[in-house]
Amino acid sequence: MVTTDIPNSVPVTVLTGYLGAxxxxxxxxxxxxxxxxxxAVIVNEFGEVGIDNQLVIDADEEIxxxxxxxxxxxxxxxxxxxxxxxxxxxxxxxxxxxETTGLADPAPVIQTFFVDEDMQGKLSLDAVVTVVDAKHIHxxxxxxxxxxxxxxxxxxxxxxxxxxxxVELAELESRIRGMNAMAKVYRTxxxxxxxxxxxxxxxxxxxxxxxxxxxxxxxxxxxxDETVGSIALVEPGAVSGAKLNGWLSHLLQTQGPDIxxxxxxxxxxxxxxRFVFQGVHMLFDGRPDRPWKPGETRKNELVFIGRNLNADxxxxxxxxxxx
Amino acid sequence: MPGVTQSLLERRCQGTLNDYVTAIxxxxxxxxxxxxSAAGEVAFLDTETWVPVSLRGGNGQSxxxxxxxxDGRYLAAGGQTGEVMIWAIDRPPDxxxxxxxxxxxxxxxxxxxxxxxxxxxxxxxxxxxAADEAxxxxxxxxxxxxxLDLAWHPQGEHLAVSGHQGxxxxxxxxxxxDPEIRETAAASLAIAFSPDGQYLASGNLxxxxxxxxxxxxxxxxxRGFPGKVRHVAWSSVTVGQAPLLxxxxxxxxxxxxxxxxxxxxxxxxxxxxxxxxxxDIAFEPSTTLLxxxxxxxxxxxxxxxEQPVQILEGAPKGFTGLAWSPNGQWLAAGGQxxxxxxxxxxxxxxxxxxx
Lengths: 323, 355
Fold this sequence. Notes:
Chain B: Keywords: Repeat, WD repeat. Chain B: It holds the Pfam family WD40. Chain B: WD repeats lie at residues 56-87, 181-212, 271-302. Chain B: This is WD40 repeat domain-containing protein. Chain A: One of its GO terms (cellular component) is cytoplasm. The complex is a heterodimer. In chain A, the strands form 2 sheets. Chain A has a 7-stranded parallel beta sheet with strand order 3-2-4-1-5-6-7, sandwiched between helices. In chain A, strands 8-12-9-10-11 form a 5-stranded antiparallel beta sheet, sandwiched between helices. Chain A has helices spanning 23-32, 71-74, 77-86, 107-115, 117-122, 144-151, 166-179, 195-198, 214-218, 241-255, 311-319, and strands at 10-17, 39-43, 55-58, 95-99, 123-133, 155-159, 184-187, 228-236, 259-266, 273-280, 283-291, 299-307. Helix content of chain A is 29%, strand content 26%. By secondary structure, chain A is an alpha/beta fold. Chain A is built from 11 helices and 12 strands. In chain A, strand 9 and strand 10 form a beta hairpin. Chain A folds into 2 domains: 10-204, Rossmann fold, CATH 3.40.50.300; 221-319, Hypothetical Protein Yjia, Chain: A,domain 2, CATH 3.30.1220. In chain B, the strands form 7 sheets. Chain B has a 6-stranded antiparallel beta sheet, with no helix packed on it. In chain B, strands 1-30-29-28 form a 4-stranded antiparallel beta sheet, with no helix packed on it. Chain B contains no helices and 30 strands. Helix content of chain B is 0%, strand content 54%. By secondary structure, chain B is mainly β. The model of chain B is unreliable at 349-355 (pLDDT under 50). Chain B has strands at residues 9-16, 21-26, 32-37, 42-46, 53-56, 63-68, 74-79, 83-88, 94-100, 109-111, 117-122, 125-130, 135-141, 149-152, 158-171, 180-193, 199-204, 209-213, 220-222, 231-239, 242-249, 252-258, 266-271, 278-283, 290-294, 299-303, 307-312, 319-324, 330-335, 339-345. The A-B interface holds A 46, 57-58, 60-61, 63, 72-73, 75-78, 80-82, 85, 88-91, 116-117 and B 19-20, 22, 38-39, 60, 62, 64, 80, 103-105, 107, 123-124, 145-146, 148, 163-165, 185-189, 205-206, 227-228, 250, 320, 337.
């Protein structure tokens, strides 16, 4: 599974965003920034990004294709082939950036790092960074790809803030947080953002299993006018491992394609350690974490991001797993 | 290591390139050897002198594939520079032409076994270049993904191309005709025709291997591999009802023997000795002696495709690939740190210990 505990593993940033949102601008910022790292960049739409000493590989093809949620079919050999070739060099790169096409669903790229043995051993997914065009996103809210790019993100740049009013921006940000309660959201012009906010984020590390926007947890009355949304559950009490397993496997079997990402911290009955987990579609990764501290309130916190998820049903089903 | 006591092969010569050895190729007569590296080097050796001649220095851009034409007159190399380089094998070899395909990695190429025709991948396409005409005679669209592997049928009349969800087989007699398709559920990573041309095997990303009789679209499916099946190799020797077949997956090499036409008509033998990933496998020509080269720095020889008989070393960080000379006289292998080694059949009878 994807962990960041692998020594010397190369971090991977997946860069997504709808056409014209500012991905290339951000990519140029990453490439020209003096971070002292040797970057390799795999791009799908070749732009003017040839920088000395950086490696830009033109994938020149739709590497990323969804196929009815079957992971074997979604993970294609192309990306693995390209990265496998890159990894043969002794003079390896320090960071890999994969820019997906504007119209791509990022899931197959993420899944590649979960399921391929070569990728698992040598690379670790750092974060999915999504650039959103604050002005034009309204033109393609209905596009599944646009929603999925927001849903899968760990970091969202709300770009082109100079083109919209503060009121519009606040509304947009709230709407995005309703869809994805896990992502950090930054407002940017010309994709100007601190590099530390997008590189070296470690978002897929289980040590950082859960960072839910506290405002999101506080509000119960979220407007769920999107089909894509987040569900956050916070429940006291201890969970039966067996019941939870049963519920999650049933969930992934019946709704796997609609569950984009999930993360959580659990208080398993009879365990002194927290249990942390995450998942991408049907792929699931979990393990015991640090012990609960004395005096710490033992509780369960879970976040699901997906399409057509029924919050009441989730809460009810989860409560049924409590001891 | 119980049983690993023979000394079939002994080291003949060795050298070093500047980075990961990416490709090794022998001329058909077994008298010439070429080796390429991730630093972009191409070295050429003659078995009379064993003095490496540098055909290309390293420029940092990897050379990924090499091959000698069937008549031994040409050597081709391709890589990340987007070039296919062709040398005429004179003394010394002379680079006679370069095909430029900008912004494309050339990571597989293979000469027809019967004609001086070279097939190479360029992204989602394959081109066939005829040396005698010095011209590209076919451009074949794989379409569903970039090309992952290429294999000519031993009679030279068909070219198989593997990639996402299948293998497409074009007929040389009519490159423009639609290819025949052999479907795979996931990506087909590695393909090989049996030397008798009767079977095609495909190692796949979804931990399966499929084998088709050449004229039949319905395959046998082999499951239970520990990881993706990254290499497949055939012996020319028939064991049971078909040539002996081998596959590499994670730390295992697995040999397969056909015992019947039934859906489960292949028996597997897991060769369990390597401690790290097996990067390449190949049978000695005309025998069932299998060589497996692995990340653990061991190159193991398996008699009858099952019995470990010798462990060769010389690439401490791991072997990346191997190649038997077609006459069976030599075995060459390359390593992570640019090491290359050549072993030959031992003349000293059967000794004891490691090579």
